[in-house]
Fold this sequence. Notes:
Elements: E1 10-14, E2 17-23, E3 31-37, E4 50-52, H1 65-74
Amino acid sequence: MPYGWIDPEPFLTHKDITVYYTYKDDDYSNQLTYWYTTDFTHTCSDNEYDFDVRELPYYNENDSHQDIIRKAIDDKKLKLPDGDEYEDS
C-alpha cells in the first residue's frame, strides 16, 4: 500500500502564526494530545519547532490549549520556522 504526505491539521491561527497538531510516528490517525508544532513540514513531535503545551509557562490544566498557546504567541515564546516571524506589536 503506498504512503503519501497528508497536510497536518491546523490547531489554531493567532496573529498570523499557525500551530499544527502533531502525530505519533507521523501517523495521521495518531494525533497527539499535548504536542503541537509551528512547522508545517514536520509533525512527528521530534524537531525544534515542536512543543509540549504543558511545558509552556502559562500552562494551567484548567485553561484550554488554545488559550495557553495564544498567550505564548502574544509573548513570542514559540520557536518559528525560518521565514516565519512574529508581527510587531
